[in-house]
Write a structure and sequence with these properties.
Blueprint: H1 17-30, E1 34-37, H2 40-47, E2 55-59, E3 63-67, H3 72-81, E4 89-92, H4 104-109, E5 113-116, H5 123-132, E6 137-140, H6 144-148, H7 154-174, H8 184-197, E7 202-203, E8 208-211, E9 232-237, E10 239-241, E11 244-245, E12 248-253, H9 260-279, H10 286-299, E13 311-313, E14 320-324, E15 337-340, E16 343-346, E17 350-353, E18 356-360, E19 365-367
Parallel strand pairs: 1-5, 3-4, 5-6
Antiparallel strand pairs: 1-2, 2-3, 7-10, 8-9, 9-12, 10-11, 13-14, 15-18, 16-17, 18-19
Helix pairs in contact: 7-8, 9-10
Length: about 375
């Protein structure tokens, strides 16, 4: 049985005080008097509350966390652990969360500008908010906190690096079972189990194991297909530590004897991936990373086989902004943690994807994923 690589108790605690102040400065610059936060990962990022039912009302003078009776004690403990004990008022309600917006909260927000997460709030929930705050000027603010979350703090990086380390070790252990006869579903389940034994709280996302012709499907769901000697197998997976998830993809050949065509395809993707990683640095245009990867595959004759974007940022969500695609606008910033994952997919033959997660630095990047590459690990 594997032993855990680390305990979450060994991690540096996350101080949520600076995050709250950063958000308040953003509200001032945006011209808002308050923000109604409903997206679960944003509630967690701001104050540390991890319950399944939580909304925040953030103002300059005060913060209100609204949940239900299941989470009263948990909310108090998590706020205290994040440095916000006594600084956030907690309200538990048995009905809709907007019912907590009464008395002084309503009177203080009359005629005020209140932002809301329009990329999360449903029409029904918006109508309840408007009814609870009559007279307030509700203003859509999509992506406001998501933007603040992009550059990772040292404590966040520590969690992502540990998650990547767990995934690295789990795959190394699991590769001995990359043999004919094992099914995609079994390989995926055992890999997930190994990550948990090594200290992961969960997987980052549903593990992808795609063999043979299935490897040409970028997001194939593991099924009952058994590995055969000579199959390409794409393994895309990650571990989660204290809410932060890693992401890595490797492609191998069962039996370790790749054909000429498999080798040619793999080398094209691996070279594209290496070129993409090589161009990452502070100030580089997001779209340029995609262009660099795509150019390599186009030169090798696989341009049309690259059917998705090159990468994305990581954090509390497995797909965060910014994205690395041909449509992306903006530049890389120091402290972003992004994936570089070009692929080429040939229906009826198979596919290859190679992915690493890297930390953007002023002069380049630092990979946090280190599992062996190559068709024959």
């Amino acid at each position: 049985m594997s032993n855990g690589l680390a305990d979450e108790g060994d991690l540096v605690p996350i101080d949520h005080g600076p995050r709250l102040e950063k958000l308040r400065r953003e509200l001032t610059e945006t011209g808002l008097d308050a923000l109604w936060v409903t997206k679960a990962v944003n509630v967690r990022w701001v104050c540390g509350f991890t319950g399944s039912n939580g909304q925040l009302l953030v103002r300059d003078e005060c913060v209100l966390l609204i949940s239900d009776g299941r989470y009263g004690s948990q909310a108090s403990a998590e706020l205290a652990a994040g440095g916000l004990g006594g600084l956030v008022e907690i309200a538990t309600v048995s009905g809709q969360p907007e019912s907590a917006l009464s008395g002084r909260w309503v009177s203080e927000l009359t005629t005020k500008r209140v932002g809301f997460e329009s990329d999360d709030l449903t029409t029904q929930r918006y109508e309840r908010l408007a009814a609870a705050l009559p007279g307030a000027q509700l203003q859509a603010q999509p992506g406001l906190i998501d933007g603040l979350r992009q550059v990772k703090e040292p404590a966040e990086r520590e969690r992502l690096e540990l998650a990547a380390k767990i995934a690295d070790h789990a795959l190394r252990e699991q590769l001995e079972f990359l043999v004919p006869g094992i099914t995609e579903r079994t390989f995926a389940a055992e890999l997930d189990h190994r990550m948990r034994l090594l200290g992961a709280e969960d997987v980052s996302f549903a593990t992808i194991v795609a063999s043979g012709e299935n490897s040409a499907i970028p997001h194939h769901r593991p099924g009952e297909r058994s590995f055969n000697r000579g199959d390409l197998v794409v393994v895309d997976f990650g571990a989660k530590v204290d809410g932060y998830g890693s992401d890595m993809t490797r492609t191998y050949v069962v039996g370790g004897d790749p054909s000429h065509d498999q080798t040619r395809l793999y080398e094209a993707v691996a070279d594209a991936q290496a070129a993409g990683v090589g161009c990452i640095a502070e100030g580089v245009r997001l779209a340029e990373v995609d262009s660099v990867c795509r150019s390599v595959l186009e030169d090798r004759g696989y341009g049309e086989a690259f059917i998705h974007g090159t990468g994305h940022s990581l954090g509390l969500e497995i797909h965060e902004q910014p994205m690395l695609s041909s449509r992306s606008v903006g530049t890389l910033r120091t402290g972003l943690i992004v994936t570089v994952e070009p692929g080429a997919y040939l229906p009826g033959f198979g596919g290859v994807r190679v992915e690493d997660s890297v930390v953007v630095t002023s002069g380049g990047c630092q990979p946090i994923t280190h599992a062996p590459k190559g068709l024959t690990p």
